[in-house]
Write a structure and sequence with these properties.
Number of helices: 2
Structural class: alpha+beta
Bound molecules: zinc ion
Mean pLDDT: 86
Order of helices and strands: HEHEEEEEE
Helix content: 10-25%
Oligomer: single chain
Distance between the termini: 13 Å
Number of strands: 7
Length: 133
């Protein structure tokens, strides 16, 4: 299941970063092209988080719109789904510039009662999870 592997990766990162502290909120940025079903990801997240510091934490999803640059006419297009096509010339030779993100933006830790975004982990390692279909 697509969402389960994503949830596993998110929980992994959150647990590592929390370093033993309880996590109350996990803010996640997810690209539109990941085709994540929010309710499915939330469900999987709860499942994977069980028994970890992240158990009971709220998952806050921010969906990032898909954007791309046309290799034929160089136009920038915001795309709302597949197939990815240029808004100007209709071409399909698109270089995706946004929309494939999967990253933990910030964690809220129960003990600190404050956002810990300054030390948010660099989650570039996550961007390869699942990949594009
Ligand atoms: Zn074009």
């Amino acid at each position: 299941m697509h969402e389960l592997s994503m949830a596993g990766a998110l929980v992994d990162i959150a647990v590592r970063h929390a370093a033993g502290r309880r996590v109350s909120v996990v803010e996640v940025k997810v690209g539109h092209l990941r085709q994540v079903v929010p309710s499915a990801l939330e469900f999987a997240f709860e499942l994977v988080a069980e028994g970890t510091e992240v158990e009971g934490a709220r998952l806050e999803l921010e969906v990032v719109a898909a954007e791309g640059r046309c290799r034929s006419c160089a136009a920038e297009t915001v795309m709302d789904g597949f197939p990815l096509a240029c808004g100007r010339c209709g071409g399909f030779d698109i270089e995706v510039t946004a929309g494939e993100e999967l990253a933990v933006e910030a964690l809220e830790l129960e003990e600190e009662e404050q956002r810990d975004s300054a030390s948010a982990p660099n989650l570039s390692e996550l961007t390869t999870i699942g990949g594009r279909r």
